[in-house]
User: Which sequence fits this backbone?
């Protein structure tokens, strides 16, 4: 593998981010893909953005405070 470096933008690894690990991905110019050195995730820029958007959707209410009345509507 060629010497890798950071890409134009620093993207978080979606797989690690789902497990509450905040790791930047590296960019391989030859393969034109991003990869994580911790979990072996690889993907194109579009794939990384899509999976990071899924993580934002899952944790959108993480900082919201719920009351007992919120749970009575279920």
Assistant:
């Amino acid at each position: 593998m060629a010497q890798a470096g950071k890409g134009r933008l620093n993207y978080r690894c979606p797989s690690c981010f789902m497990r509450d690990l905040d790791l930047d991905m590296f960019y391989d110019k030859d393969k034109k893909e991003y990869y994580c050195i911790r979990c072996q995730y690889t993907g194109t820029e579009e794939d990384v953005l899509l999976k990071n958007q899924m993580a934002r959707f899952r944790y959108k209410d993480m900082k919201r405070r719920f009351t007992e009345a919120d749970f009575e509507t279920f």
